[in-house]
Amino acid sequence: MFLKRKCITSILKRRNHGWIKPEGYDTGIKVFNCVTRDKQPLIVKNKNLVSWYTCGPTVYDSAHIGHASCFLKLDVIQRILKEYFNLNIVSVMNITDVDDKIIAKSNELKISVQDVAKQFEKEFWQDLDSLNINKPDCVLRVTENMEIIKEFIRKLMDDQKAYKATDNSVYFDVHAYESYGKLQKISEESLEPVHFKKSNMDFALWKASKPNEIFWESSWGTGRPGWHIECSALASHVFGSEIDIHAGGIDLRFPHHENEEAQSCCAHGKTQWVNYWLHTGHLHLKGCEKMSKSLKNTLSISSMLQNTSAQVFRMACVMSHYRSSMEFSPEFMTTANNLLTSYINFFDTCRNYSDGYIKANINNDVVNKLITDTSDKIYQALTDDFNTPLVLKALSEVVTTINSMLHSTQSDDGARSVSIITISNLVVKTLSIFGININKRDVNASENNFIEVMDILNSFRQEIRQLGISKRDQDILKLCDNVRDNLKKCGIIVKDHGKLSSWSL
């Protein structure tokens, strides 16, 4: 009866818990806050050192595109904060290189736990590199920082926030932290005792060793760390008792992030450890609830890239708000590809105009107003919880308006409008903030002469075509058309503009 009354009292306290607005530099951005469940101003302690921690992978298998979408969306947000808002992000990520799943994979492959972890961590970084996702500034592996983790556990035990149970494992006592359930509501029944634990929600800080399993020595017995304690100990080791931003997928909000916050607040004697939690939405295959290895419905990153380019996948992630779920399907990837192509074609058209291939009558007043209005829309969208889909909408409106001018049949006086170059630069620069580069020929490093060869071929065809026009030789013109059509099959678009010709991918 006493325990039941204690549970009810704790729940009432949790319901009254509020988020503490930090002091420091107001970025002007509002982000969704899972504690208050609404948008709050993003205030960082120091704009020249913004602490950012991301939960890294458990390296027991190949990463799938659900992981890719999470890390890519977080990469986009970091790029926005760095390149658009001029904040100095210092990012840290952990690597869980010992875990039940890694041990199981070790037994399955009949190789050591260390070799399993090394193999899949190497593959993880290769996958991120293939997607143009920036590597964190600091990477901390669990097995290389065991003393830091054990010291964190020892502090919790000394402060009576954790206990050793009859199964010889060490557990965090959720009743010792009155704000448990800060990130996600917890039912009363969840907090009732079960078996050897004081509460069903108590979680392992140190797992007692099992026969024939890897273990480490500690003052409370041999074993290895629990999942949640790793991130708390390693993040605290770098950033201390306060972190500006902690990020991960929405599936980590509970119990992982909830448990991190609880044990870290207790260890540091603070009411709030992380000021802002950022959670990305699920990625799911068409017709599936979400993508998960346990559901056996995953698609590896390398397999995805055989059919979808990294640029197209990034565009798809930018088209979806970072907190929203995202469906991976051929139709959605086609839509993303079409949008990316429209921006590339827009840039090529603007370049052809500035190079004199296209003549058009440009209304500079309209273009200049569009530059101002679009810049304002971009700022409003990015300060509103990083609303990248709204940015793309504004850019697409630019493309539609400018294309209508450049493709008009009205003659001009031959002067080049600087405003077209300016608005083209705005589109290119904004997309580059997201990691999307439309101002670069997308060719392999081994084909570094490709552009030069294409320029030579284009010039030769242009001269032959002019010869055919001057002599009114249909056979020559047909041969030029055949070259154009065959190049199109290879993904190279050749356009004729009177006496001049241009090409683009």
From TrEMBL:
Keyword Aminoacyl-tRNA synthetase: yes
EC number: 6.1.1.16
A Pfam entry, by short name: tRNA-synt_1e
Catalytic activity: S-sulfanyl-L-cysteine + L-cysteine = S-disulfanyl-L-cysteine + L-alanine; S-disulfanyl-L-cysteine + tRNA(Cys) + ATP = (S)-disulfanyl-L-cysteinyl-tRNA(Cys) + AMP + diphosphate; 2 L-cysteine = S-sulfanyl-L-cysteine + L-alanine; tRNA(Cys) + L-cysteine + ATP = L-cysteinyl-tRNA(Cys) + AMP + diphosphate
A Gene Ontology term for the protein's cellular component: cytoplasm
Compartments in which it is found: Cytoplasm
Gene3D superfamilies according to UniProt: Cysteine-tRNA ligase, C-terminal anti-codon recognition domain, HUPs
Listed cofactors: Zn(2+)
Single annotated GO MF: metal ion binding
Keyword Nucleotide-binding (UniProt): yes
Main subcellular location of this protein, as a coarse class: cytoplasm
Keywords: Aminoacyl-tRNA synthetase, ATP-binding, Cytoplasm, Ligase, Metal-binding, Nucleotide-binding, Protein biosynthesis, Zinc
Domain Cysteinyl-tRNA synthetase class Ia DALR stretches: 378-418
GO biological process: cysteinyl-tRNA aminoacylation
Domain tRNA synthetases class I catalytic stretches: 46-337
Enzyme class: ligase
Reported function: Mitochondrial cysteine-specific aminoacyl-tRNA synthetase that catalyzes the ATP-dependent ligation of cysteine to tRNA(Cys). In addition to its role as an aminoacyl-tRNA synthetase, has also cysteine persulfide synthase activity. Produces reactive persulfide species such as cysteine persulfide (CysSSH) from substrate cysteine and mediate direct incorporation of CysSSH into proteins during translations, resulting in protein persulfides and polysulfides. CysSSHs behave as potent antioxidants and cellular protectants.
The family this protein is said to belong to: Belongs to the class-I aminoacyl-tRNA synthetase family.
UniProt name for this protein: Cysteine--tRNA ligase
